[in-house]
Amino acid sequence: MNIPQIKSNFRTIDSILYAGYAPNVISTAMELGLFEALAKEPMNANTLSAKLGTIENVTEAFANALVSLKLLEKNGDYYSLAQVAEEFLVKASPAYQGATIALFSHYGQVMNQIPEILKNGPPKFDTDMWANIEAMKAGGQGTMGGSIQDVTEFITTLPEFPNLKNMCDLGGSHGFYTMALLDKNPQLRGTILDLPKVAELAKELILEMGCAERIDTIGADIKTDVSIGEGYDLVFASHVIYEWKGHLEGILKRINKAMVPGGVFVSNHLSMDDDECGPVSGTMVELMTRLMGYPTHHLSEDELKQALEASGFGDFTVRPAEEGRQYRSLILAARKLGRPEDRDIAQKQKGGKSNE
């Protein structure tokens, strides 16, 4: 028998393969109401299985798997919720991410088509997937898991924020980011700009949320010459400008034209490692994105800055992409130049480092 001499450890691959079952475990736990059951009180496997109507010895193994995923905690024979499950997996929680997990599973179905798409190419991307009120609500609820907190903290700490009066949420869809900022600044008004079908649905959602008096909508495609409004002192773009990667200048110049001098443009977009080979979540999102026929789902800081500088922006404030937040997002602010002090700042910053 020829026993090979190995230099690495198969456990790396083994762990990856078994981790692939985790979404099924989590989705099943949510479907059963396991997290709601344990939110009321800790339970042992016998009590938990009786509550869920499941088989006790299988329920025990199921709960132990959730402990290994750090979604449950175990003390003796009793299971209880880990904090992360309490915040994100219990339906009554304001940060509940059930809709986000459902979308993850839905979009993930394209991964079953990898061999075919690798050989024959992706389908034409369907932009109508966003023109759905339930998808918009799911996207809005998804921001509550950390993204809206990060963005709101970043923008409200900008020195310009107390004096802002007119903002545009570019590709704003559900409008949750705008609503959060309006809560922090009583003089601020918002405009949600999105594709016409999405903008019409946004009106319904804004009315439902009680914000119709302070938020307008514009149905337009930013790639065309249709007006996107004017007089904005804040333009916010979140997870929307990936499509124009490589030719951002034309879009950003149109945005610049719609802003007042000294106005602030803020971008919130996913960013990967410089070699685009990490982190794992980023590479998987990028693969899924291209399989679905969308060009990309990440922007680098350097690329975005170069495009902004070429479009009349400067004086950057940056919160780098990093692990530990809901998404590995780069949050970047740039000011529209036009005032003498803006030009001076831009000249000093030429070739310099970001404010972090």
Features:
356 residues, alpha/beta, Arc Repressor Mutant, subunit A, Rossmann fold, 3-stranded antiparallel beta sheet, 16 helices, 10 strands, disordered C terminus
Adjacency order of strands in the biggest sheet = 6-5-4-7-8-10-9
Measured between the Cα atoms of the first and last residue, the distance is 60 Å
Helix amount:
40-55%
Enter the CATH topology name of the largest domain. Answer: Rossmann fold
What fraction of residues sit in β-strands?
15-25%
What is the CA-based Rg, rounded?
23 Å
pLDDT under 50 segments (min length 5)?
352-356
Chain oligomer state: single chain
Kindly report the average pLDDT value. Answer: 91
Describe the secondary-structure layout.
Layout: H1 11-19, H2 22-32, H3 34-40, E1 43-44, H4 45-52, H5 56-68, E2 72-75, E3 78-81, H6 83-88, H7 98-107, H8 114-120, H9 133-143, H10 147-156, E4 166-170, H11 176-184, E5 189-194, H12 196-208, E6 215-219, E7 232-238, H13 248-257, E8 259-270, H14 280-291, H15 301-309, E9 313-319, E10 329-336, H16 340-349
Parallel strand pairs: 4-5, 4-7, 5-6, 7-8
Antiparallel strand pairs: 1-3, 2-3, 8-10, 9-10
Helix pairs in contact: 4-5, 7-9, 10-11
Description:
This protein is α/β, with parallel strands linked by helices. It has two domains: 11-93, Arc Repressor Mutant, subunit A, CATH 1.10.10.10; 127-276 and 293-349, Rossmann fold (3-Layer(aba) Sandwich), CATH 3.40.50.150. The chain is 44% helix and 17% strand. It contains 16 helices and ten strands. The protein has helices spanning 11-19, 22-32, 34-40, 45-52, 56-68, 83-88, 98-107, 114-120, 133-143, 147-156, 176-184, 196-208, 248-257, 280-291, 301-309, 340-349; strands at 43-44, 72-75, 78-81, 166-170, 189-194, 215-219, 232-238, 259-270, 313-319, 329-336. It has a seven-stranded mixed beta sheet, sandwiched between helices. Strands 1-3-2 form a three-stranded antiparallel beta sheet. Helix 4 packs across helix 5 (56-68), helix 7 (98-107) packs across helix 9 and helix 10 packs across helix 11.
